[in-house]
Write a structure and sequence with these properties.
Layout (H helix, E strand, L loop, with lengths): L1 E6 L4 E6 L4 H10 L6 E5 L5 H12 L3 E5 L2 E5 L7 E2 L1 H6 L6 H9 L1 E5 L12 H9 L3 E5 L2 E5 L3 E2 L2 E3 L5 H11 L2 E2 L1 E5 L5 H12 L3 E3 L5 E5 L8 E3 L4 H14 L1 E6 L7 H10 L2 E5 L2 E6 L9 E2 L11 H7 L6 E5 L10 H6 L3 E5 L2 E5 L8 E3 L3 H11 L5 E5 L2 H4 L5 H7 L3 E6 L3
Parallel strand pairs: 2-17, 3-16, 6-7, 10-12, 11-13, 20-21, 24-25
Antiparallel strand pairs: 1-25, 1-26, 3-5, 4-5, 7-9, 8-9, 13-15, 14-15, 17-19, 18-19, 21-23, 22-23
Helix pairs in contact: 1-2, 1-7, 4-6, 5-6, 8-10, 8-12, 10-12
Bound molecules: ligand EPZ.
Length: 420
């Protein structure tokens, strides 16, 4: 089993290119099923979650293979419409395949995606929307059996702006007769990337990035070549790493327009953040200041995925910062591990209060989830001595090679085999 060893105390300097976005490529891989053709995804990140999606495509009879940093998918050979329980359990966001399989095959079968480290991950909004489009869905014994002889476009309204439900319904609507509108849709940049991909394949999707997405269904779709957008949460992670360790970094490809709530907090804490057309630079000198309460919210609010890494960056700030996690029930699992390093964090329900301390000490810690694991790296950069971070497979779900990127920025971090 691998671990990361981090020796803290040094500052970061240098430049690194930001990888392709995990939360964009996963729904786009599901969308390739709609084309029945060949798709080249450029800038596709090599992640455990992408590997899991490739296994799902192959189990459905499709082909997918790497060529450099492009992923080539060919979905002409689709000959199954069921995803095994084992594959579903590998990645709870596999539910995103449901709409696309239904639109392409008229039926779909998969096990109920389980919860994850962040708490229950219901898909009731996905299923309600698919039923409104005409799908018959039976869930028994943990299995979802869906049939849709024909999907009909409808005006849908989401009770909350769910990212996954918006994406699933966009894909199903591509296979529906007539026009579908999705009101109270999620507005994340990854939804816009999905729209741009679908339109590059011949679809007619509009409104992504606003609260109402419109899909004209039953358009003949074809393969395409598409460049995946840069990962805004990876960019946020590295900005928080610079804030934590101090120094001056530049993130090529990062787009501040997609990060503005994060850069606003970093500026308030005392970092100098500058954006240009090619990326985002950040200079952090001296001890950070605490900031006004940070409340996570659907885009364009503060991203829940950046909550843990920002918390880690503020562990040695002057004063106290209040966090409120409004999206997921259980997204403070990294706190106990940070406290082992000397952090002063008090959690009460969805609120966490971080009081800055002078010193953080390296310690043996373990990842509890993807972004919590990244937060341990951020904190370890500012800790005295060595921190060993175990269970880093969580981190590898969303970061291509976090230690390579941080080392490029001057961090003392290596991946080693854990000797028990
Ligand atoms: C996506 O998850 C992202 N994952 C998450 O990133 C991200 O944290 C989340 O959006 C919020 O931005 C991918 O894109 C693969 P939601 P998703 O549906 O689609 C509730 C990471 O670290 N809900 O917007 O699952 C749900 O319980 C991951 O990269 C329902 O109640 O998020 C949650 O409380 C973690 N019923 C809230 O909505 C539903 O049918 C937001 O969930 C669907 C969701």
């Amino acid at each position: 089993m691998s671990q990361l060893l981090v020796r803290g105390g040094g500052s970061l300097t240098g430049e690194v290119a930001v990888q392709g976005a995990k939360n964009s490529v996963l729904p786009i891989l599901a969308a390739t099923l709609l084309t029945g053709g060949q798709v080249e995804l450029r800038g596709c990140p090599r992640l455990r979650d992408v590997d899991a999606s490739i296994r799902i495509l192959k189990t459905l009879g499709c082909d997918a293979r790497w060529e450099g940093d492009s992923l080539l998918a060919d979905t002409a050979g689709l000959n199954r419409c069921a995803v095994s329980d084992i594959l579903m359990r590998e990645m709870r966001s596999s539910a995103i395949f449901l709409g696309a399989i239904l639109a392409r095959c008229g039926e779909a079968e998969m096990s109920y995606p389980g919860g994850c480290e962040l708490g229950p991950r219901p898909i009731d909004l996905h299923l309600a929307g698919l039923r409104d489009l005409g799908a018959e869905i039976r869930d028994s014994g943990g299995m979802l059996r869906c049939r849709a002889s024909r999907l009909r476009g409808r005006d849908l309204v989401l009770s909350l702006p769910s990212v996954g439900a918006t994406e699933n319904l966009m894909l199903a609507a591509c296979g529906a007769e007539g026009v579908t509108t999705i009101a109270n849709a999620a507005r994340e940049p990854e939804i816009v990337d999905l729209q741009e991909f679908l339109n590059a394949c011949g679809a007619a999707v509009s409104g992504a990035g606003t609260s109402t997405v419109t899909v004209v269904g039953k358009r003949p779709l074809h393969g395409c070549t598409y460049e995946i957008m840069p990962d805004r949460i990876v960019a946020a992670t590295y900005l928080c790493a610079a804030a934590s360790a101090g120094g001056e970094i530049y993130l090529r490809k990062a787009r501040e327009s997609q990060l503005s709530t994060v850069t606003a907090v970093l500026r308030e804490a005392g970092c100098v953040v500058r954006a240009d057309r090619d990326g985002v630079g950040c200079v952090c000198r001296g001890r950070l200041g605490s900031v006004r309460p940070v409340r996570t919210a659907p885009y364009p609010g503060f991203p829940t995925d950046a909550q843990a890494v920002l918390m880690a960056a503020l562990l040695r700030s002057r004063g106290a910062t209040v966090f409120e996690e409004t999206i997921f029930e259980n997204r403070y699992r990294h706190v106990d591990e940070l406290v082992r390093m000397g952090a002063d964090i008090r959690v009460a329900g969805r609120v966490a209060v971080v009081t800055g301390t002078e010193i953080l000490r390296g310690a043996p810690v373990r990842c509890t989830d993807l972004r919590g694991g990244a937060a341990l790296c951020v904190a370890a950069l500012a800790a005295e001595g060595e921190t060993s971070i175990a269970e880093i497979s969580h981190i590898d779900r969303g970061y291509e090679c976090i230690e390579k990127d941080l080392r490029t920025l001057g961090a003392d971090i290596v991946r080693t085999e854990l000797t028990i």
